[in-house]
Amino acid sequence: MSQGTLLYAQSGGVTAVINATASAVIGEARARRVRVLAARNGILGALREELIDTSKEPLAAIRALAHTPGGAFGSCRYKLGSLDADRAKYERLLEVLAAHDVRWFLYNGGNDSADTANKVSRLAAEFDYPLTCIGVPKTVDNDLVVTDCCPGFGSAAKYTAVSVREAALDVAAMADTSTKVFVYEAMGRHAGWLAAAAGLAGEGPDDAPHLILFPERAYDEADFLARVRKVVDRVGYCVVVASEGIRTADGTFVADAGGGRDSFGHTQLGGVASYLAGRVQERLGLKVHWTMPDYLQRSARHIASKTDLDHAMAVGRAAVRYALEGRNATMPAIVRTSDAPYRWKIEPAPLHRIANREKTMPRAFIRRDGYGIPAAARAYLTPLIRGEAYPPYGRDGLPRYVALRNTPVARKLPAWKV
């Protein structure tokens, strides 16, 4: 067994394949005889010294994580401030790491998690504590810079494209006497990647989705309603996909759920589909149905993308290798080397180039009229949803997902209240 311990933690909204990354991390570390602890509920577990001994889990359970959705060790939405503002918390974190001889810290999350890992690496250097911090990418929003795509996105994108295609067939069948407009709400605060993925559901001008609303383009209600009317007159029905983060020209969210805030200080979104449906019904007098898949789009492991699963496993294995090589303040990034055939590799990227930055949809990935995707976006998106990675099913017809024991590690420090 190698000297020192590796601490792994999950952060932010979970995905269909974040546990696959955890499986790869633990499996790679075991192969290298490195002990792995996991923090319960992300960085909060590290601060509270609520740690899990993954060595108590049988190998079969660790392998089964690869086809199990959710976050096996618990996640959190909790952002640490600057090193000065939250000094006591960072120092507490170092105390916990030192108490358990943690020499490698892997934080699996998005932009804010990359920022946390980067700050912890700087504090450890300040205190001359031997610690290597690695950010491990994950987010269905696909908004991390540097990396070509983010583990978790491909599966959510596949779910979105499949769901929109299937729902469109339903609407088409009923349009003559029932629903004329269907509105589907996709996740995406500032980046329209998931909404764009819905565009893969159809190819021709009369195929659904007929209109996609991106947060990168200002929402114009008059123009939107006029286009809905034209599509219904031409096709007989209209399928709309709207990103939750669409805004008007002055920057106001179209639907901000009353202006609430989440734990990161972001506006709490959700409900744009119901708002748009109401406006269509009021202004155009058309029968409308809407849906907000919400957690379903990020937890649908039963229809995960094989490409996405491969990405998730690869970044987990690379993260362990980078950690043991001492590549501090680094993230394993996915680098695309070819669209057709699709080829990719993993390369290290510095966390300071990733933390607190967002990758939005480039202009070339949005159709000129602003309501769909062009060929360039299709070439980028299609490989990411390709391939199936079904979980095993039981005799009851349900997926066989694993529940870990999550055996706690004995505390060595006084209790800490966050």
Structure described in brief:
With 418 residues, the chain is of the alpha/beta class.
| CATH-assigned fold name of the largest domain | Rossmann fold
Quick one: how many beta strands?
11
Strand order of the largest sheet: 3-2-1-4-5
Shape: elongated
Low-confidence stretches: 257-268
Name the helix and strand elements from N-terminus to C-terminus, one letter apiece: EHEHEHHEHEHEHEHEHEHHEEH
Q: What brief labels describe this structure?
A:
single chain, 418 residues, alpha/beta, Rossmann fold, 2 domains, 5-stranded mixed β-sheet, 4-stranded parallel β-sheet, 12 helices
Describe the structure.
- It is built from twelve helices and eleven strands.
- By secondary structure, it is α/β, with parallel strands linked by helices.
- Strand 1 (5-10), helix 1 and strand 2 form a beta-alpha-beta unit.
- The two termini are 33 Å apart.
Q: What layout of secondary structure does this protein have?
A:
Layout: E1 5-10, H1 18-31, E2 35-39, H2 43-48, E3 51-53, H3 59-64, H4 87-99, E4 102-109, H5 111-126, E5 132-137, H6 153-174, E6 181-186, H7 193-198, E7 211-213, H8 221-235, E8 238-243, H9 272-284, E9 288-291, H10 295-299, H11 306-324, E10 330-338, E11 343-350, H12 375-381
Parallel strand pairs: 1-2, 1-4, 4-5, 6-8, 6-9, 7-8
Antiparallel strand pairs: 2-3, 10-11
Helix pairs in contact: 1-11
